Amino acid sequence: MRLIILILGFTLTLDSCSTNYNSDTFDKDVWLSNNDISDQYNPRSRMTKDLIKNYLRPGMQRDSIIILLGQPYMEKIEYRLPKELQVPDSVSKIDSIGIEKFNAWHSKFSQPDTIMRYPVGWSTIDPNFLIIKLGQDSTVTDFWVEQG
């Protein structure tokens, strides 16, 4: 009987330590306590839409983002294509020559962007990230969720 009570108490203790956040509303404390990229059921995934809709704004300062969301999983300069730029058909063919053309085209048109990445859960096999793009003056210019 003592063993059953001990096991039950241990199970309840472990269960209370896990995050059972079931709301779609952004909660800063829950966000800050769930920064593990390996957590496939991260509660951040549920609150990301509310965060994007009601909290993040273009023009916010980098420091304000850090206060709201904590330190990013990764912050670095990435070479990305401008959003409005479409890949032309002449470089989109997938073969060895097409890849070379695409790489040359990408190198010509990509630009350096400062990107902050926050893990927000997983898709089927890859992590999802909230991406926050900063301008040269360290203000937010754009934000979205992307895989990988």
Shape call: globular
Helix and strand sequence:
HHHHEHEEE
Task: Count up the helices.
Answer: 5
The total count of strands amounts to 4
Features:
single chain; 148 residues; alpha+beta; four-stranded antiparallel β-sheet; 24% strand; globular
What does this structure look like?
Helix content is 36%, strand content 24%. The longest helix is centred in the first third of the chain and has 16 residues, at 2-17. It is built from five helices and four strands, in the order H-H-H-H-E-H-E-E-E.
Task: Summarize the SSE layout with pairings.
Blueprint lengths: L1 H16 L10 H5 L11 H11 L7 H8 L4 E7 L15 H14 L1 E12 L4 E8 L5 E8 L1
Antiparallel strand pairs: 1-2, 2-3, 3-4
Give a short overview.
By secondary structure, the chain is α+β, with helices and mostly antiparallel strands.
